[in-house]
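Submission sheet (multi-component)
Chains listed below:
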Amino acid sequence: MVNLTIDNRKIEAEAGQFILDVARENGIVIPTLCSHESIEPTGSCRLCVVEARQGKKTRIVTSCLYPVAKGMIVDTRSERVMNVRRLVLQLLLARCPGSEQLKEMAAEMGVEAEPRFVPDTDNVKCILCRMCVRTCEKVVGVSAIGFSYRGPEKNVCTPFKEESETCIGCGACAYICPTGHIEMETTETGDTRTIWGRTFKMKICKVCGRYFAPEDQLVYISQKTGVPIEDLAVCISCR
Ligand code: SF4
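Outcome: structure written.
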């Protein structure tokens, strides 16, 4: 165990834990867009920066990737930290001026709603955090999406922007996306779901009669786990 200070609070943490995790465990809120407990941190969004002092050295570090250390003094809201966060947010807004999530964060941090940098486009909401790509690969185990193009054109999509044969329509990428960039639509009756340009037929629960999961997803789970497909015909609430 190591003892450190975060925002003037004496805190005990396990050696090797990241600052962000320790802060969260102790109820200290650090803003993030690309952090989720189901996937490894990568520090993509850079909003979680904090000031960390060790001995005479003070550095701005990415808290989701920076481990705590004995005697470390962390400030999560110093003027220097807030200035870096505001700059990061302005850059993100320049790429995605249409993102409501970014606008809300900007309002909370006192960043001008009007971007300081010239927007590339007004309809892109992807901040290139890779949350969707990593979730599809590491959590779902499918790898149906990735990045294409470079520079301002860089964007997440299916291979060659065509209908993906590997996508199972689970929607995990859309759920985890912090800016609502990935569109997923379900019909009013719930019988189909469309994502990444492909429409998936939904399975109806044989107990409650509600549509609950894409048939392709259930087939995938059955093949992966060896559970007979007939045993997957009931939704989670009715199991
Ligand atoms: S909906 Fe398709 S692309 Fe998105 S996580 Fe599921 S399998 Fe991957």
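Remark: The chain has six helices and eleven strands.
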